[in-house]
Structures are given as structure tokens and as C-alpha cells.
Amino acid sequence: MSKTKGLIRFLPYFDEETVKNVVNALRDSEAVMPTETGTNKELVTLGRNLEFSDVFDAMDNLITYRIDSARKQAPLKLLIQLSRALTMDGIDLKAQKTVKNAVLSKMDEEISRLKESGDYDTRGAAITGFSLGILIFEYGDNAYSFDESTQTMVVSEFDISRHFEQAGRILGEGLHKEYWIRHSTRDHIDVKKEIIVLTNDTDAMERINDYAENEFITLYEKNKRSIARLNEARKNIYERLINASAQPIAIPWVLPDSIDFSVSDNSIKIDRHLYCSEDGTFQASLNPWEKGVIEEELKNGAVCWLRNLDRKKWSLEIPYEVGGVITSMFPDLVVVRADVQGYIFDILEPHDPSRKDNYPKAVGLAKFAEKHWDKFGRIQLIRQKKGLDGREHFYRLDMAKVAVRNKVRGITSNEELDRIFDTDAERED
Question: 259 and 291: one domain?
């Protein structure tokens, strides 16, 4: 039964055309997790084109990103979880212990900083006692007792323990108790007070989380190739950790043995695609710019190419920022060329200059190129416009060129991008 027929069953008062529109809306929605939608008539399974097996083999150094709207977690919690997973999977048997000790040392460092600044005693006094004259309190759980000699209310051990557990929820992963164990030879009330003061200091916690975020990225980068060799169930654990990070993190780009691909009535056959049907052909619906660019690439000697679809689990995904929010783009084309050193993987994005997302995407591509220039060849934003000969041509702004991306990185408007296109974009026809 087709997916459209199935939906009709659940939406009995809608005709098939309406249901198809629902399917298309789901497919295009950025809020939907990568999945396949469509009808049996439209959806085909394509396998790797065996003619380009060596190209697939050469892709093991490529990277992508995964940006989603999943709830983000604090870097400190993610770091501990990552180290535990690496130890459990036998990738780094010392990771959990090493990371835990490093984090505890960082906590020690921040507590010492507070004590040296002179703020610690003041903050500690706010926890253990305060003037009766300014206090409004409840007798509830006998949390406070009156000290006759100092005329202050003193917080009981019970309430300090409650605040200590609250601090533990802020730190996560039982770090408050690990710190307590580390300092087990000292007075346990003093140790608990240190954790409470620490977690209530915004600057200290920000430094700890900044440290954890950098360590999380470093630890993942160090072990990502080993992670990629795990089974799917375990790889999904790491993928959830990466997705929960507020900082976009590069992951290995691994193309599957087969992909599902929608073929519509206006699809055309195009040669040398990385995936093909059983008869060796590939069909896709391309807009005039995409079609023109790939024809120009094949004419210029491209070995093969990939139509990169939006929001698929296998897609090449690049982060960019709009209004302070990180989102993702899916460049239309990945083109493979060859030279004496091997295969070169180019990222090409034909893009309508009238769209509002032009300059944010350009900045995103420039930042991506700055980080990953060693893994990809050309990284181009492409426009079609009339040349001096009066004919339409494709003009390419290549972020792989240092001079170009240095100009693009700091722009804040489409007008600035237009001027850079006028001065730096080049034709390749």
C-alpha cells in the first residue's frame, strides 16, 4: 500500500491531491526529522553506481554536520556522557576516568579562584547564616536555628544537604558527589558549601562549561573515526550527544549503500550520478540553474556528481546563522573531479540572489571553507546573470579562495554580497 493511500485511510475526508500536498509539506518542513515521504509511484531506491566504487572509497575523509532542534544539554553533562560511552565501547578505556579527574580539577581551580578573590566567605555566609533583622523565613523542616551569640539564623545540616543535591542537579552526572569523595578527608559540610557556592557563581560555571565544550569537541574529534566503525545502535548514541550540543560539530560524512529518491513526472535522465537504478540510469527533477551548472561541470570533465537532497540522513549539511540562531543548508550539488593527486570533492550551491538568506548562507559557506579547506575543493555560491556578451552565464564565488572568504566572512547584508560577486565571481564556461 502506498504511503499516500495509507494517509488517505487516516484522513478519509481529504482527496488524494490534498494528501499529496500534506506529504510535500512534511517533506519540506525543517521541523521534521530526516525521513522519506512520498508515494510508491514517486519513490525509488537507488544503489551505489559501481562505476564509481573508487570514488566512494576516497570519501572517507569528508565531513558533514547535523543541526536539529533537539533540546540542548549543558556541555559539562555531554562531556561526561561522551567519555563514559567511549570507555564502554572500548574505544578509550581511560576516557571516563581521565575526563572526570580533569573536570574535578577544573572545579577545584574555580573554587580556589573564588576564595582568592575574597568573595567566597561572603557567599558562604549567605548559605550558612544571615542576620535575623533582614530575614523572613518559615519553620518548615527546622532548616534554620537561631544563634544567640551572633544574633543570626544558621542554616542546618539538613538544608545544606538539600542545597548540595540541588547543586548536583546543576552539575549533573553525579559530579557533586565525586567532588565530595575527592575531598573525603575534609569536613563534609565545608565541601558541600564549596559545591553550593560554585554552582551559584555564574562566571565560574560559564568558565567550566566553556572548558567542557572545548574538551567535548576535542574528545569527539580524536575518536570520531573509531566511532564511525561501531554498529548503528551505538553510533546513534553518539549522534544524539552531538545533536544535543549547542556548538555545531563536524562528523564523518558516510554515504549509504542505497538511498531513496523521489522521481517526479518532470524528471530528466542525467549521466554520471553516484547513485543509479538497476539499469544504470539516474533521473531527477532539477531547476534550470541546477541543470545548467551540472551540464557545465560534466562538459568541463567532472568524473561524477551527487544531487544533495534536503534533510536526509545521508545529506551533506552545513551550518549557518540567521538572527543568532544556527540552522542548516543543504548545498544542491557535490561534484567530483580528479587530478594527479586523486579525487577532489566540490560543493556547489546555485542560489537565487533575491532570497533573503543569501548573505547568511554565504557567510556560512565561508566559515565552513575556513575550517575544512583541506577536505573539499571548490566551495561555491553560484548565480546566473548576463555577461558582457549579453548572454546568461554562471558566475561563481569560490569560498575555497582565501581572499574571497576573508571578504565574505564579515558581511551583514545582501548588498555587500552583491558587490563581492561583481568584483570576485568568476565564470568557468
Answer: yes
Residue 283 in domain: yes
- Sequence-distant (6+) residues with CB within 8 A of 323 are none
Give me the pLDDT at residue 15, please: 56
pTM (2 d.p.): 0.74
Strand partners, 381: 349, 397
Instruction: Say if 239 falls within a structural domain.
Output: no
Residue 402 near residue 424, CB atoms below 8 Å: no
Q: Which three cell numbers stand for residue 93?
A: 578505556
Note the residue count of the chain: 429
- 201: burial class by Cβ within 10 Å (0-12, 13-18, 19+)? buried
pLDDT one-digit tens code per residue, 203-217: 999 999 999 999 999
Query: Nearest to residue 195, comparing CAs of 217, 164, 170?
Result: 164
253 and 392 assigned to the same domain: yes
Q: Considering the domain boundaries, does residue 242 fall inside one? A: no
| Final residue belonging to a domain, choices 228, 262, 285 | 228
Same domain as 368, residue 334: yes
Looking at 193, 228, 263, which one is the last position of a domain? 228
What pLDDT, in 10s, does the model give residues 56-114? 999 999 999 998 766 789 999 999 999 999 999 999 999 999 999 999 999 999 999 99
- pLDDT band at residue 20 under the 50/70/90 scheme: low
Torsion of CA 294, 300, 301, 303, to 10 degrees: -20
Range of the domain at 322: 41-67+248-424
Tell me how far apart the alpha carbons of residues 143 and 145 are, in angstroms, rounded to a whole number: 7
The whole-angstrom separation of Cα 397 and Cα 34 is: 29
